[in-house]
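TICKET: design request
STATUS: open
ATTACHED STRUCTURE:
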């Protein structure tokens, strides 16, 4: 536990009003989570302005308010108002200090890229466990230690806010974890969530189209990703992605490169022979994971025997099968990811490839038409449906997707109810067909204008397969 003055030491700031000798019990930018002894950071976000919640934070027990707008420094409150240049960087700094700077003692590997972050982090975690390392993986689908998911109260976000991340790292350390692998999203990097996390290895996988609108354009999106290259002690970069190569060169940092045709030290042939998971993109994911371990000091002889044991995380090419019909649930929600999955399944399909997908609301409208064109190109039948429409009209999102193939197509049906779309796709499938349900993967909810609703592609697919089987048996009985 630290005093306010200790958190402000050597940090540029001005203070008005109140006393600074109180002990700090926590820090947060969410007024609803303030407890007695907390510092409240009144950051202005895209949707919420923390200044609107200062009075609530004080009522709940805040002992100081941090702002980055001088106009707020004279508010008539009875606690200190601390004005700093950047609220996001201050909460990152203070969260790390209050947690005891656990990242300084842990080996931290951060993985960024448009696609593949979850798979690569879990591959690294699995390989580290195989060589005897106690490892935690933190990212989109939760918190895992030695491959087992652990319950930890934190938001469902790819990269956790600093106020949650550093206490979690301290918790992992208390359990004997020595290595942490985490996903570094562009939003997380841009918002300085990792600014005071000591990162030993930064891994850059690829650059595709996602979150452009949230960042204000492609250049800002790339700049956010590039922050990791400047922050990590060692940088590992995909040489097969031209944009990644350019980013590594622009950073001025020495980088280790990996790719399908070459890798640190030797050929990738042995790795590719051992990998039992389909898809060229998963070959690249495996090579990226192996590269991280080699940078840590392990040899290929240490790693290659464990390649065959690698398993995809939940919602990544997750396979169900019944009565000769295969159903794959995948998180693919960008053009590159959708095309990679469609290419992989098209080579394994002996019947029709039926695709169910949509696009998220309030996210990159520019990718919708491209994903529509890709779905039609590879599929025999496409059901366009809702993904997470948020506050957008699902019907208008569908119209944007349709622009990718000219608006009308005999092999495309629009079914806005995602549950119904999944059911129709599976009921139209015959033995030998493959149904791909893309976009949501592991998610257990759907974000709509009326709120967040429970929803699982896996559960709905299992239900539809069961209903289809029962209907088929009932028809057989009637026929007899």
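STATUS: resolved
RESOLUTION: sequence designed for all positions
ATTACHED SEQUENCE:
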């Amino acid at each position: 536990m630290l005093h306010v003055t200790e958190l402000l030491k050597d940090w540029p700031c001005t203070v008005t009003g109140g006393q600074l000798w109180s002990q700090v019990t926590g820090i947060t930018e969410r007024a609803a989570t303030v407890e007695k002894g907390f510092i409240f950071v009144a950051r202005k976000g895209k949707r919420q302005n923390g200044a609107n919640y200062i009075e609530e934070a004080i009522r709940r027990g805040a002992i100081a308010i941090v702002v980055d707008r001088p106009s707020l420094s004279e508010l008539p409150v009875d606690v200190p108002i601390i004005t700093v240049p950047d609220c996001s960087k201050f909460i990152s700094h203070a969260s790390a200090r209050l947690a005891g700077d656990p990242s300084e003692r842990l080996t931290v590997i951060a993985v960024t890229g448009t696609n593949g972050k979850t798979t690569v982090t879990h591959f690294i975690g699995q390989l580290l466990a195989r060589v005897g390392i106690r490892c935690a993986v933190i990212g989109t689908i939760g918190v895992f230690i030695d491959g087992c998911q652990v319950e930890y109260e934190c938001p469902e976000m790819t990269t956790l806010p600093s106020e949650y991340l550093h206490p979690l790292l301290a918790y992992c350390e208390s359990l004997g974890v020595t290595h942490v692998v985490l996903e570094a999203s562009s939003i997380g990097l841009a918002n300085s969530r990792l600014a005071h996390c000591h990162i030993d290895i930064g891994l850059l996988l690829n650059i595709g189209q996602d979150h452009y609108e949230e960042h204000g354009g492609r250049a800002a999106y790339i700049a956010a990703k590039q922050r990791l290259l400047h922050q990590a002690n060692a940088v590992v970069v995909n040489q097969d992605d031209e944009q990644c190569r350019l980013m590594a060169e622009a950073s001025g940092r020495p980088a280790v490169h990996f790719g399908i045709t070459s890798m640190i030290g030797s050929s990738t042939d042995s790795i590719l022979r051992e990998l039992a998971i389909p898809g060229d993109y998963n070959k690249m994911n495996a090579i990226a994971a192996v590269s991280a371990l080699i940078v840590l000091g392990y040899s290929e002889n240490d790693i290659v025997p464990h390649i065959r044991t690698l398993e995809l995380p939940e919602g990544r090419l997750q396979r169900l099968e019944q009565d000769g019909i295969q159903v794959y649930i995948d998180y693919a929600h960008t053009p590159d990811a959708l095309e990679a999955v469609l290419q992989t399944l098209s080579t394994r399909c002996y019947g029709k490839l039926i695709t169910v997908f949509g696009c998220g609301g309030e996210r990159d409208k520019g990718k919708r038409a491209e994903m529509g064109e890709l779905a039609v190109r590879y599929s025999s039948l496409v059901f366009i449906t809702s993904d997470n429409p948020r506050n957008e009209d699902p019907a208008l999102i569908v119209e944007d997707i349709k622009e990718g193939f000219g608006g009308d197509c005999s092999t495309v049906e629009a079914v806005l109810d995602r549950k119904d779309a999944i059911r129709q796709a599976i009921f139209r499938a015959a033995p030998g067909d493959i149904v791909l349900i893309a976009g949501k993967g592991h998610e257990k909810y759907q974000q709509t204008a009326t709120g967040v609703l429970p929803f699982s592609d896996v559960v709905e697919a299992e239900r539809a397969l069961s209903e289809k089987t029962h209907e088929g048996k009932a028809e057989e009985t009637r026929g007899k």
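CLOSING REMARK: The chain has three domains: 2-98, 102-309, 318-472. The mean pLDDT is 94.
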